[in-house]
Specification:
With 244 residues, the chain is an alpha+beta fold. It is built from 3 helices and 12 strands.
C-alpha cells in the first residue's frame, strides 16, 4: 500500500511541475554529475578560486533538459549539481539550490528566498541551531548573521541563515528536498559530503570555504553556464563530458 501511495504521489507531483503543454521529463537525476567536465575548471578560473584551498561550486539547473520541465529551472527536485574541489580531489553531488515551494508564502507573508548567483563564504556550523533535538551539522554563511542577496518570487530581496544542509531522498515525498531557501544535498549523499568538506577544510586550515553559484541556461538553442552578471563562462574547447 505504501509503495502504491508513493507511486501515486510521484505521478501527481510530476503534474505539479509541468507547465502548460511543456513535457515533464523526470523527477530523479540519472546519477551524480560529471566530475571531469572542463566547465568546472572554467568556473574556478572565472571566480579566481585559490588552487591551494577547497571550494564548492553549485550549478543551478545542471539537469536543465533531463529533469522536470525541459529547458526550465525546477523546484523540489535535485536538478542542480554541487562540486567539491581541492588540491587533492574532486567530487560531485546532486543538489538543490531553491526552496521546495517558491510560490508559497510563509507565516509572515513572505515568499521563500532564492539565492542570487555569485561567490560567498561559508563555515562549519549547525542547522536548526535554535531547535534542540533537531540540530545537525551544516555549512552556514560567514558571518552567520550576514545579509545575502536573493529574490523572492522574482523580486530582488535579501535573506540570511541560508545554510547548506541535508535534504530528503524519498521520491514519493511531498517535500523531497526539505528547503525553505537553503541549499540541500540528498540525505543518502549527505554524510559523504560533510565528511569530505569538513576534512578538506581541516586539511587546508580553512575557517571558511568559498561557495560559487552559477547557472546552466538555454541560449541560442544550446546550454551555457553563466555567472552572476549573466556572462557566459567561456570554456575554450567543448567539454569532453557535456551536461545532459
Amino acid at each position: 500500500m505504501n509503495r502504491l501511495l508513493a507511486k501515486l504521489w510521484q505521478n501527481f507531483s510530476s503534474c505539479l511541475h509541468a507547465r502548460g503543454d511543456e513535457p515533464f521529463v523526470a523527477d530523479d537525476p540519472p546519477g551524480r554529475p560529471n566530475r571531469t567536465n572542463r566547465v568546472i575548471d572554467a568556473i574556478a578560473r572565472r571566480y579566481e578560486l585559490d588552487p591551494e584551498k577547497a571550494s564548492l561550486i553549485f550549478i543551478r539547473s545542471y539537469y536543465l533538459n533531463s529533469m522536470g520541465v525541459s529547458g526550465v529551472g525546477d523546484s523540489n527536485i535535485y536538478d542542480d549539481a554541487c562540486y567539491l574541489i581541492s588540491p587533492a580531489m574532486r567530487e560531485s553531488y546532486n543538489a538543490n539550490t531553491e526552496a521546495s515551494f517558491p510560490k508559497k508564502k510563509d507565516k509572515n507573508g513572505r515568499y521563500p528566498a532564492v539565492m542570487k548567483l555569485g561567490k560567498y563564504k561559508y563555515a562549519k556550523g549547525m542547522h536548526n541551531k535554535s531547535k534542540p533535538g533537531r540540530q545537525f551539522r551544516a555549512l552556514c554563511p560567514h558571518p552567520v548573521w550576514m545579509s545575502l542577496p536573493c529574490t523572492r518570487n522574482g523580486v530582488t530581496s535579501t535573506c540570511s541563515h541560508t545554510n547548506i544542509h541535508k535534504g530528503g531522498s524519498n521520491a514519493g515525498a511531498f517535500d523531497r528536498v526539505w528547503s525553505l531557501g537553503c541549499f540541500t544535498i540528498p540525505n543518502i549523499q549527505w554524510e559523504d559530503f560533510t565528511e569530505r568538506v569538513y576534512s578538506n577544510m581541516t586539511k587546508y586550515k580553512q575557517k571558511t570555504i568559498d561557495v560559487m553559484i552559477v547557472e546552466n541556461v538555454m541560449r541560442d538553442g544550446e546550454q551555457v553556464v553563466v555567472d552572476h552578471e549573466g556572462r557566459k563562462i567561456v570554456v575554450g574547447k567543448e567539454p569532453d563530458q557535456p551536461f545532459v
